Amino acid sequence: MAAHLRRPALSSVDMETIVETALKRGYTAQGEMFSARDMALLAEEVCSCKADLLTGGMSGDNASTVIAHIRKGKFLDLVYRYDEDFNHEPCQNGGHKAHWAVASERVNFASAVASAQHIAYSSSLGVLLGVDRVCKDHTQPDPTLPWLHLATNSGSPPHPYTGAREVYILAKQGKSLRYQLWHLDTVAQSNRQLKEMDPKRSSDGTRYVLPEGGVEAGLAGQVVLLHTKTRADT
Q: Model pTM?
């Protein structure tokens, strides 16, 4: 999914190739991935990108890192694990319903409402900020929705989290056909409480690949940041 979102040329990377590579490297046995570190290594090999592993969750100082990463520009994705609710949105179930999702700058915004005076958004960035004040030098009101402030081509506010009361990301999950708008704090809470595999799966007699320390050590509070490779990375 992340490969297809990152650039059209990678749409030729099929699922069979991804799974075969993961099996060959010992990252998975049945298609499962319980290690963010292994996901980063797999992404670098299959998607020909650079992947950084962010630890310590998606809140606090890391929230600014997450938003800044998505805002940076072309072909940057955020890959993370979270507990999936019945409607595909984040929930807290101890890791029993853990699934991977991608937040990408290659998305378009349709409509949203946030509890703040203004909403600032860039359609090429995939980040929605509910703020009390907007920077007129970097935004302009939407002609039909005056409460929605769009980022101009001249640049973006210098710090993505400054003054923001509400932060949302546009996410894509493999089991859903649509993009969804999720509150960053909700995603962060779901991501950091991934503790264990669903007991039904762990006791079904099937072999799964688990990192040392189990699901919590491999997934909780961890995010994969995908970058386009530069000459310095090759």
A: 0.75
